[in-house]
Amino acid sequence: MPKMKTKSGAKKRFKLTAKGKVKAAQAGKRHGMIKRSNDQIRNLRGTRTLKECDARTIRKKYLPNG
């Protein structure tokens, strides 16, 4: 049986914390900034941790060796 490979797109988008949670960039900052308020743009900076239901899928299918 061959080894499971990490999805190359997932390793660019997600990082695992020490406790196994999944960190990802905030969504909604690619385009259309003119219609967002400055407060909303400021709050979308940085990263966030995913909900556990989504994180389970990422760890299992996309980052098996993470």
Q: In words, what does this structure look like?
A:
With 66 residues, the protein is of the alpha+beta class. 35% of the residues lie in helices and 15% in strands. It is built from 3 helices and 3 strands, in the order H-E-E-H-E-H. The chain has a 3-stranded antiparallel beta sheet. A hairpin with a 5-residue loop joins strand 1 and strand 2. The radius of gyration is 15 Å and the shape is elongated.
Radius of gyration: 15 Å
- What order do the strands of the largest sheet run in, or round the barrel if closed? 1-2-3
Mean pLDDT: 95
Q: N-to-C SSE series?
A: HEEHEH
**CATH class membership:** Few Secondary Structures
- Under the CATH scheme, which architecture would be assigned? Irregular
Portion in beta strands: 15-25%
* Percent range of helical residues: 25-40%
User: How many helix segments?
Assistant: 3
How many domain modules? 1
SSE blueprint:
Blueprint: H1 8-13, E1 14-16, E2 22-25, H2 38-43, E3 47-49, H3 52-62
Antiparallel strand pairs: 1-2, 2-3
Quick structural summary:
By secondary structure, the protein is an alpha+beta fold. The protein contains three helices and three strands. Strands 1-2-3 form a three-stranded antiparallel β-sheet.
